[in-house]
Design goal:
single chain, alpha+beta, five-stranded mixed sheet, 3 helices, 5 strands
């Protein structure tokens, strides 16, 4: 029974994409109602935003490089943005580990992390 529990727990961990997120609120006194991740729009640059908006949070995401990809990083960032009430994100950067770091990670058995950062925004209606 215990073995089954740990197997299921491991499967859930793997299926979740293994991306951890955190948000730093830019205006802690402002409170926004949560939205659904499907409502969060993705912008490549601030110049692409055609409506007024305000910056809500800086959202950080990280995941083990061999178990995550950019799509999972963006999806996790959208989920965190939705939780803090941002209905848009502006992609800032995703830092990919170098090939050398990936090889060293395999040799030494250590995790090599992919890290990303986006700006959560609230589009004004």
């Amino acid at each position: 029974m215990k073995k089954l529990f740990y197997s299921v727990l491991l499967l859930i961990f793997i299926a979740s994409g293994c991306v951890a997120t955190q948000a730093t609120m830019l205006r802690p006194s402002a409170h926004y109602g949560p939205v659904t991740p499907a409502q969060v729009q993705v912008f490549l640059r601030e110049d692409d935003i055609k409506t007024p908006y305000e910056k809500v949070a800086i959202i950080y995401a990280q995941g083990e490089a061999t178990m995550t990809d950019e799509v999972q990083m963006i999806a996790a960032a959208k989920e965190k943005a939705a939780q803090v009430g941002a209905n848009g994100i502006v992609l800032s950067k995703i830092d990919e580990p170098s090939a050398g770091a990936k090889v060293a990670g395999l040799i030494f058995g250590v995790a090599v992390m992919r890290r990303g950062e986006v700006i959560g925004i609230r589009l004004k209606e």
